[in-house]
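stuck on this chain:
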Amino acid sequence: MFRRQIDARRLFLRHVMARRCADDGATMTTISRIRSIRAATLMSLVLGPTVTGSAQAQVVDAGPTITTGVEVTLPSFLNNGSISNTAIGNAAVYGDGSGTLVDFTNNGLIRSLINAPAVSLRVDSDQNAVENTFLNSSTGVIRSIGVGIDLQGEIGTFVNEGTVASTFRAIEHSGFIGRFVNSGHLSSAERDAIQLGRIGQFRNEADGEIIGRDDAVIIFSAGIIENAGRVSGGNNGLEIGSVDVFRNLAGGWIDGRDQEAVLIEDDVSRFENAGLLQSLSSSAVRVLYDVQTFTNSGVIRSLNVIDDADDAQPEAYAVSARQLGAFSNSGTIEGQSFGVGADVIDSFLNTGTIAAFDRAVRSRLGMDRFENRGLIETTDGRAVFVTGHILDGNNSGTIRTRGDFALFSGSDADSDTAGFVNSGLIEANGIGALFFGRTGTISNSGQIIGAQSAGLATFGARAVINTGLISTDGLLERSGGLTILGTVDRVDNSGTIQSLGRSGGAGLLVANGQTFRLDNSGRIIGPTGILIDTENPFDGATIHNSGLISGLDGVAIAFGPDGTDRLILADGSRILGNVLFGGGEDALDVSAYGGNALLRVEGLETLSGGDRVVFRNAVAGTDFEDINVVALDGFTLAGRETSAMVLQFATSVADQIMAGARSAPPGYALSYAPATDPILAVTGQQLTGPRIWGSAITGGRWAEHGTDSAYHAGLAAGAISQLDARTEIGVAAAYLSGDARSGEDRLQTDAVMAAVHGRYDLGGVAFDAALVAGYGSHQGERSVAAFDGADIASAAFDGYILAPSLGAMVPVLDTGSMTVNLRGEARYVASTISGFAETGSAAAVAVGEQASALGDARLGIEARLVQGDLVMTGRVGAYAQTSLGASTIAISHLGDVETRTLPQGSETGTYAGLGASADLGGDVRVNGAIDVSSALAGLVSASGRIGLEGRF
């Protein structure tokens, strides 16, 4: 929207223009050709300077100077000679229009040596202005100690290719010129270079130069003004009453020494600059009224020095207007005082640089749209200063100042669509960004930094969303990285909000408002992490925390003195420092928190733990309480890890039972392979000696989403004896060492295991059975998010495992070299973990004995391919696991005991594997396998083994 306003000054301007352009006629077409004077109508005499003519043309030929001047009386005039007015008191060339002038051409010299114009022409206003042409060619020179060219009336086209130089004005015109073109030199030693009335189109070409002691160019009104050359004025470069379109093209240079480079005293439809506009002591561009579209891709520079400029001095701005409709800058705008200023800016886009001493961008009444993708900076004061509203703001560039505010928005803009988005840098020595009125949503994914007082301060908003950095150095005592001075409906932080300064400040400071809600999954750090200290009555605050809240001076959260406050913890929460709940009915909810935490609180009325293990103990001699939240996952980790090792070992044993070169998936993955001995398959002979085998095994598992992971490695060996053609028995032993993590909890395990096993081939079906027994030594570390820093609660304990299994295999396909079998297996794993007492942490607990049982069933297809001495195997199938029977665990802390049932559950998934074995000679074979499994819940396992086997 572009609003046009009429005031007294504009009416006065129109009155003056009417007086000075009394002979204005209707608007004419702005493009006219320069008429050619036909050779037949031009007569040249060999003798001396002569004025000749026909019925239509006058011609002045080369020769001695005509000192008595020439009166133009015919439609066409051509000067090839030299004309002056030394002998008369009139202009050197003059005419009153009685000859209805159509063409005027100067190829020679026209000079006035007295205070009179060199050329003075008055063209009848009722003539066809499209046909009127004035040409001073590249060889033409017009000089005067008065006015160079004085024109009145209507001219179709005025072209200067030569030189027009004067003491007073080079050109003075009243009336209408359709098209004015300069590619030569126009200058005035003491006054304005040119003063024109109404112009259809004004163009100064790249070779054009217009220099004035006062203003370089004065135009009362114009349709289009274009400059590609040099325009330089002692006062203004261009002073324009009104213009529709203004363009300073690439390479164009317009400067004003004492005043503006460009001064426009009325509305402008379109203002474009791709060159240089510069003022040495005032505004570079000053528009007294409105600009619909302002575009700069060049340089606009104001070098004025004003120590104490204010809003009453519009000349202080590099660009000044009453209203800017659509403003776009991709170039450079520099103001030694101020940058861009207007009462209203409808839309603002900067992809270039705007720099000033103060107020690089200033809007008194507000902006509908603000977008910065470039650089806006000041050395003092405020970089972007909007005392009205910013309805829709976006910064992906840099806004910075060494002064008070990098960004200031000064009035309410509270709507669903209103707001400000920052993905760049906003930085100030004072406050990074201040929203003085209530706004919609403030969103930051970049950096907002204030050195002294606040990174971001707001007097109210529907939401503040931070995924980036909001920070203050906190040089003032009462300062916050994020400072809230009015009601903010919601704050979402997944980035960092911090104050690095002195005591009394806070990472997040609530200094005013009625309610406050925070969802924090990021980091909030300060002398006090979160400080709610309002002077007005406060209804209460709600804080959901799954991130870090840290108070460097010892207080993480200080709720207000009144209101009902709630602190809700979720997974990932860390609170470093005390929590002061203040007055009111305050509550702490840890029912959704799955970690270990030790909080020190004051003023807490209600504690909600759900099914979590929570201990609440008073701190002797103080008003504080310690809240110890204990997660069960770390205590069940030993059973899970030992079970995984047993299954890994059992897989190696089962592979040897089935005489295959393969390994089962690690962890909970287990599968078997075909029964036929590969040595028998290759040789076709019955071997009766015992078979000895040994393997290096490794395995690991990790969660696709989350932090659970484990790995283990070790050695296994065994011997198998064939009792008859259908029966085998064997023994095996293994040592495994592993490391497992669940969240920040850690378990190290060393385990030894032994097994007895056997196989019986019943013709079409082969059965096998095994019994594994094991012992594990465990070292556990449980990480606790304590109020005084991260604690580690340590414990050492033992574990025992017994795992029987039964399997069966049915042939599906046998081609001689390839066999395919259907394989099923069931295993039961029972484990017992001894009780223990943790040490090393104020949150340490004692844990009673644990017992658990796991059932594992698998069904799959296994194939084997024999190629000479090489045997290759593959398997694919599905598995299911479930906890068998409920087990309880007793946890105690400072004399309080909590009993919980261990988590029960089931899991299903798929597995696959590849293996191979090869003959090394002498009844010795090498074998290896790789297996993977994937649970539907997202647990992925992988394992591998390599070993030797031989028959003796």
Summary: The chain has four domains: 1-27+210-335, 31-191, 582-630, 633-951. The two ends are 98 Å apart (CA to CA).
